[in-house]
Design a protein that fits this description.
Blueprint (H helix, E strand, L loop, with lengths): L3 E2 L2 H4 L11 H14 L4 E7 L5 E6 L17 E2 L20 H7 L2 E7 L6 E7 L2 E8 L4 E7 L6 H4 L5 H18 L4 E6 L2 E5 L6 H9 L1 H4 L2 E3 L15 E7 L4 E2 L5 E5 L2 E3 L2 H10 L9 E2 L1 E6 L5 E2 L10 E2 L2 H18 L15 H14 L33 H4 L8 E6 L3 E6 L2 E6 H18 L5 E11 L2 H9 L1 H6 L3 E4 L4 E8 L7 H14 L8 H13 L9 H12 L14 E5 H7 L7
Parallel strand pairs: 2-9, 14-17
Antiparallel strand pairs: 1-4, 2-3, 3-8, 5-6, 5-8, 6-7, 9-10, 11-12, 12-17, 13-16, 14-15, 18-19, 20-21, 21-22, 22-26, 23-25, 24-25
Helix pairs in contact: 2-5, 5-6, 5-13, 8-9, 12-16, 12-17, 15-16
The structure holds adenosine-5'-diphosphate and magnesium ion.
């Protein structure tokens, strides 16, 4: 179909808006054009994170020479012409805006030769104005070079991030398209460095290996769509792709990737459908890796709802939800060896909780929930009650310091998880993991500020494949990583070499320590105002701390409590969760109905 300017009544129906926000949005529009043009081979080149140059070359059908100028008009498209077309869009683009919008904020060169034409055309535009047009020899296909993005819009230029960040966004984007179109060969280069290279063989599994690394890909299994559709009255919905085994998990949902009819989409509901399918297979706070392709008739999905086309609306969202959930769940269950993990620890029987509620209603007095006192936190509160005993005759300086915790006597351990202790005013339950995290954290922070972090060098450096986004994170945080004891350096494309890790975690698997720490920077549990250093340190300490489920000897528990007493903020772990619960003597008396008893 020839390029035409959409009639106003069609143009007004289009969800218009700003599409050019950063280099990755330019790459997205150009990639979509190349794919719509039937390209089998697409090369993407960046300089300076795309700020200096973005070039996308394809071997698609090209633009006929008499339509080249028209392509840069707003609402000029060859992909639809009538309002009815909007209800069953089969191309990635349809609103004829992208080229105009990109040209308006850059210096753009287009070289194209359409199938069947002998000469190609070269068009040069500045800020959307055509400056030059000439006929040149060119292979069939299209090359769009976008230079100096936002050179004429300083306000937006200012908002671009560091080169590595922009590059990370582009890599993530190209990776997604490479997964959606395994039959197309994608080559992404940054400067002279090749960042991604797929073969175009049509084999999705091969692309996964390229994008996630062979190690992660080996833990992914092909989605098997159940034979029976859930209900005969529902539209045909095919689900394909790959899902990670529960052992392959992440600290955020960002690795759940969804495509609808070849278009990458963001959809919180469908992401939830995938997460749900892993119910009881993953620990709380961990998320799967999944690449889910949804194919359904075009009239079942409205892609014209969002300017960047990243969100869609389904005619039957419930049907799509259950199709995704069924397919993923079915695949996981079919796969042997997937053991559900118990995630809840029940304390007190449900019957007792119900009975307590009833009692409270009957007496009209609302019994506070087990009397757990999280508010008693004023430091030194117990100073006078506590027996002042540091061994030795002369008072050691430590004995003079205000106590942040009362003196505690270890009674025992419950569930290999909590330490039971007695203090001057009742019973304390201490979460051994959280407490140890706190201890290690304060020690580590002190070492870090004294520039005395101990590093354990590895016997042999390890090369680790990482995702482009992770690569960007590492490059951005190299100094911080070094400062907390990670000897890590970029090592070719999408790989790093790890030569050492913080001594604190010397016993652990170095690769998972590094990946865990990256996950923390990206999307961690620390309060949002924490610095990157604090996040890294907290994550290392979490890794190094004694785990729940570890049986501790009496002496170990003693030592843990003594160290906790020495902390500045012993009552919370670095993530802000309590390290201990306090059941006061009065509360105990009240709960046992001894209050007022003689
Ligand atoms: P849309 O993709 O929504 O139609 P664009 O502004 O992105 O709008 O592109 C305008 C038109 O230019 C397209 O409809 C298509 O005909 C043509 N075009 C753009 N890029 C290419 C390409 N890489 N190969 C062939 N034709 C292209
Ligand atoms: Mg387009």
């Amino acid at each position: 179909m020839a390029i035409r300017i959409l009639p106003p009544e069609v143009a007004s129906k289009i969800a218009a808006g700003e599409v050019v926000e950063r280099p990755a949005s330019v790459v997205k529009e150009l990639l979509e054009n190349a794919l719509d043009a039937g390209a089998r081979h697409i090369a993407i080149e960046l300089l300076d994170g795309g700020k200096r140059l973005i070039r996308v070359s394809d071997d698609g059908i090209g633009i006929p020479s008499d339509e080249v100028e028209l392509a840069f008009h707003r609402y000029a498209t060859s992909k639809l012409s009538r309002i009815e077309d909007l209800t069953h869009i089969t191309t990635l683009g349809f609103r004829g805006e992208a080229l105009a919008a990109i040209a308006a904020v850059s210096r753009l060169t287009l070289i194209t030769r359409a199938a069947g034409e002998t000469a190609g055309t070269r068009l040069y535009l500045e800020a959307g104005q055509i400056m030059r047009r000439e006929a040149i020899g060119a292979p069939q296909g299209t090359v769009v070079s976008v230079e100096n993005l936002f050179y004429n819009v300083p306000a937006r230029l200012k908002f671009l991030k560091q080169e590595s960040t922009e590059r990370g966004h582009v890599s993530a984007l190209v990776s997604r398209y490479a997964m959606a179109y395994p039959q197309v060969r994608f080559v992404l280069t940054h400067g002279h460095q090749e960042v991604l290279h797929t073969t175009g063989s049509g084999n999705l599994y091969e692309v996964l290996g390229e994008v996630y690394g062979t190690e992660a890909a080996s833990q992914m299994i092909a989605i098997e769509t159940p034979q029976e559709p859930p209900r005969p009255d529902l539209p045909p919905i095919a689900i394909s792709g790959y899902v990670g085994l529960p052992t392959l998990n992440r600290s955020s949902r960002s690795q759940i990737v969804l495509f609808v009819n070849g278009r990458w989409i963001q959809d919180a509901n469908l992401t939830y459908a995938v997460v749900q399918a892993y119910h009881t297979m993953l620990m709380v706070g961990r998320y799967p890796v999944a690449v889910v392709m949804i194919t359904l008739p075009p009239e079942e999905v409205d892609v014209n709802v969002h300017p960047t086309k990243a969100e869609v609306r389904f005619r039957r969202p419930d049907a799509v939800f259950s199709a995704v959930q069924h397919a993923v769940r079915h695949t996981l269950i079919r796969h042997a060896g997937v053991a559900p993990v118990r995630t809840e620890l029940v304390w007190g029987s449900p019957e007792w909780a119900a009975r307590r509620e009833r009692l409270a209603q009957v007496t009209g007095e609302h019994l506070r929930q087990m009397g757990i006192d999280l508010t008693a936190e004023s430091p030194g509160q117990f100073t006078h009650q506590a027996a002042p005993s540091e061994e030795g005759a002369a008072p050691a300086p430590a004995a003079v310091r205000r106590r942040n915790l009362p003196l505690l006597r270890v009674v025992g351990q419950v569930g290999a998880t909590y330490i039971v202790a007695e203090g001057p005013s009742g019973l304390y339950l201490i979460d051994q993991h959280a407490a140890h995290e706190r201890i290690l954290y304060e020690r580590f922070v002190a070492e870090h500020s004294a520039h005395a972090v101990a590093t354990q060098e590895l016997l042999e450096a390890i090369a680790i494949e990482v995702l482009p986004e992770q690569m960007a994170l590492i490059e951005e945080n190299l100094n911080v990583l070094h400062a907390v004891g990670f000897l890590v350096e970029p090592f070719g494309r999408n790989a790093v070499r790890l030569r050492g890790i913080p001594a604190l975690v010397a016993g652990g698997d170095p690769v998972s320590v590094l990946l865990a720490v990256l996950g923390e920077i990206e999307c961690g549990e620390m309060p949002t105002d924490a610095t990157v250093e604090e996040k890294l340190i907290a994550r290392v300490c979490k890794q190094a701390a004694v785990k729940a489920g570890q049986v501790l000897s009496y002496a170990e528990m003693e030592a843990l409590i003594r160290q906790l007493e020495a902390c500045q903020s012993p009552r919370t772990c670095p993530h802000g969760r309590p390290t201990m619960l306090h059941l006061s003597a009065e509360e105990l008396a009240r709960q046992f109905g001894r209050q007022g008893a003689i």
